[in-house]
Amino acid sequence: MDTEVAPAVADIAAEIAAMDIRGAATIADAAAEALAIQAKESDAETAAAFRTEMHAAAGVLYDTRPTAVSLPNTLRFVFQSMDGTTVEGLRQSAVDAAERFQTQLDRAQDDLGEIGANRLRDGDTVMTHCHSTDVLACVEAALDQGKDLSAVVKETRPRNQGHITAEQLREWDVPVTLIVDSAARRYLDDVDHVLVGADSIAADGSVINKIGTSGLAVSARERGVPIMTAAQTIKLHPGTMTGHTVEIEMRDEAEVVDPGDRDEIGDITVENPAFDVTPPRHVDAIVTERGQFPPESIVTLMRELFGETSERPWEAPV
User: Can you tell me which residues form the catalytic site (predicted)?
Assistant: First the structure.
């Protein structure tokens, strides 16, 4: 795409791609902020030129993390609300939509946390995988209710995102046991709940989350440990209602094998999928800011929020 985007938008996109900005809600907030920046800084002289610039900014943002559906849902919200026949009218509607989205986003996580906390009892031990602000919102709300909790935190290779979760829990004085990913099955007998987030949720209730979630869910089901997915509605994937398959992002092999070790190891293929898919039969509940749902009924909520369309209004008309 030839149209240049505002430098700050390019910077935000680069931070999302590099995972310096991570977590679905944080990505969504950053994407909304980037669109507001593009709208404010545009020097377009016509409405058509302004729309072209906004489409270009959205395209740059969308290409950063294809599996994190909160990003296209953010773009969808802003573009469906952007209206006007003049540059100033379009600019104001885009900025207002981005700010309104961010306000709803802030409230959604608090509401979700309160709902998820109700599934946790005083004295429970939870197991977490990766880093999810929605999961942490549930834990924080439970602590605010006066419940004592402890946690078994999977380190979550290859980027060790579980360390971020452990650090936050310790700031809240939650006792934490950090374990390697392959030790999860051993510790499931010691936990009362498995709490995971989601990057996307499909119409059939499948949960797309950090690689390793599916194996953990299977082991938890075998041990009779309930598994809860905490996910704001921005993570519902409306395209899956029309048969769209969620794209699984493949990350750089350097996250797995140090380039300096390649010669020593020999000629191997390295694959580094960022996510996997957990079937709905292995998930007990999906908790959102709109309530908790059995996975199989999430499509009803999806239709209520998005209708039957998988329209992508942020894409420039061909």
Answer: 130, 199
